[in-house]
Please model this.
Amino acid sequence: MEREVSNNGSLMTLLRIILALALLGSLIFAGARIYRRLPAEARSPAPEVVNEGQVKRLLTVSISNSLPNATLNSPIEVYPFDLVAARREFEASPRLAKQFDDFLVRRMHDISPLKANTHSRGDAVAVLNEGDWWLHAFASLDTGETIEWRLPVVIKDRNETIELSRENAYERTKKF
Model:
């Protein structure tokens, strides 16, 4: 009788070990599957802003003549980030965040911007690698209105110039 009880005890211990190993294996498998489905930029560290050996281009940002007396707030921030691809990813799986702004903050938490200071004539110039970038800028109008821009920028085989206007603004606010 004692032998039968000890066999049951060792059999239960063996069964517990097997179940624990199966649970651990399934957790590791599930984690690896989720990691493989992440976008490439979410898995890899943020790219360097300007790498040696890559072609560098100038991005010039200026205020449109349609915004009289506008002051471009310095600095303008340029991120190595594909905003269009992020928008597509958000729209493909809207459960990730309730608003695109929340999704964008989560996706860009490790990306450092390149800051381009505004010159006395009201424009800013940045030296960038070829690729996809995201521009974020603010301007103040003499009416008390503030305009914000969030624009995708693609730097390819030539220098780029972006003119900030009311038409390509992201948001306009006014303080009372």
The CA atoms of residues 8 and 14 lie 10 Å apart. The beta strands are 56-63, 71-79, 114-116, 124-129, 131-140, 145-155, 160-164, 171-174. Residues 2-37 form one domain.
